[in-house]
Design goal:
This protein is of the alpha/beta class. 39% of the residues lie in helices and 14% in strands. The strands form two sheets. The chain has a six-stranded parallel sheet with strand order 2-1-3-4-5-11, with helices on both faces. The protein has a six-stranded mixed sheet with strand order 7-6-8-9-10-12, with helices on both faces. β6, α9 and β7 form a beta-alpha-beta unit. The longest helix has 16 residues.
């Protein structure tokens, strides 16, 4: 039986099939198939598509899929002296607000074949809060860190910014000492809450705030004050108390606001996060008041838990998943040399989820 040369075979038969390949397809082969250089293919396959046209990105993705290309992560990690891992520091694993952020971070990490290390670094971690930074960075466990824990004057963030040990991005936090952060438009989030209560007829509205030592808590309180002024309503200091973003704080803050004569009470409370709202509901019930008969309650953060409170809580769903994705992508891009920046997520917009905890104010109010 005779044999034919490569020149004699039809053009469609010249592409090697997986059965006769000498090994796994290379990045250089993907680049050649897509008609781009190797560095462009590498960037696009890592998700860095901003400088490139959509059609270029699609050509690279199609070529990688057709060839069955999978990056050799072990070789890449050794070449770049990386762990192929990133860390996420959160203040409290009980805080429902971090569920969607975590999912967004995990999605991007998985897409780019990075391992995610989750660390509780707040009050729930006890004495471990301070050393979490040190262990993740100094012991070389991760290539970069996402920090959803920092206060505006956090000493660890300042120290890391000065020493530049490894890339870091602040998540839903901001601090003057460090430029890399991804946050939400808190003024718009809180405005949705105040607008809803005003439409129901409320004029006496209080606020269980987050801690003002955090950028998030401060911006939410500023957003509350701005929204109240927009409606021509007074911002009464005695109707604002720090709930600390946790259950006991929300309970104590609500007691402080409501433990006065009935005529001096607000008819509605805007609560800075869902877990604080659980404490707020508890305090209201302990005072012998009803929700929403005596007092309406609305909170930031949508979670299935809000459907099962007594009564079910009206909430505002914010773009937390997108927040996590953008923060993770910024961190991974910074590992490739891109300069991080301050980013505010404005899309998708906040969504009002109306449940039984909000209603018109009592007739006598």
């Amino acid at each position: 039986m005779g044999t034919s040369s490569a020149a004699d075979r039809p053009e469609g038969d010249r592409v090697a099939t997986p059965a006769v390949r000498r090994g796994r397809p290379t990045l250089r082969e993907v680049a050649a198939a897509a008609g781009v250089d190797v560095s462009t293919a590498s960037r696009l396959l890592r998700g860095q598509d901003m400088p490139y046209r959509a059609e270029t990105r699609q050509r690279v993705l199609d070529a990688a899929e057709k060839l069955g290309y999978r990056p050799n992560q072990q070789a890449r990690a050794l070449r770049l002296q990386r762990q192929q891992a990133i860390g996420l520091l959160v203040p409290d694993l009980d805080n429902f607000g971090f569920t969607q952020i975590l999912r967004g971070v995990q999605e991007v990490a998985a897409e780019q074949e990075y391992t995610l290390m989750l660390v509780e670094a707040g009050a729930g971690a006890g004495e471990g809060a301070g050393i979490s930074y040190e262990r993740l960075g100094l012991e070389g466990r991760v290539d970069g860190i996402l920090v959803a824990f920092a206060s505006m004057d956090d000493p660890h963030v300042q120290e890391w910014a000065e020493r530049e040990r490894l890339p870091m991005v602040l998540v839903q936090r901001g601090t003057p000492s460090y430029p890399a952060s991804v946050v939400m438009d808190e003024q718009r989030n809180v405005a949705v809450m105040v607008d809803h209560l005003v439409e129901l007829g409320h004029r006496r509205i209080g606020h269980v705030s987050g801690p003002l030592r955090t950028d998030t808590g401060l911006r939410r309180q500023e957003g509350f004050a701005a929204a109240m002024r927009e409606h021509g309503l007074p911002v009464r200091p005695e109707w604002i108390a720090d709930g600390g973003f946790h259950w006991t704080g929300g309970q104590a803050a609500a007691r402080a606001i409501l433990d006065v004569a009935e005529a001096e009470r607000p008819t509605a409370l805007v609560v800075a996060n869902l877990i604080s709202a659980l404490g707020t509901l508890s305090a209201i019930h302990e005072l012998g008041l009803t929700v929403p008969g005596d007092l309406s309650v609305i909170a930031i953060d949508e979670h299935i838990v809000a459907e099962h409170t007594n009564p079910p809580l009206t909430t505002v769903q914010t773009p937390q998943r997108e927040l996590g994705r953008r923060a993770a992508q910024m961190l991974l891009n910074s590992l490739s040399g891109e300069k991080p920046s301050r980013v505010m997520i404005t899309d998708p917009p906040p969504t009002l989820v109306v449940r039984a905890s909000t209603a018109p104010p009592p007739p006598s109010s």
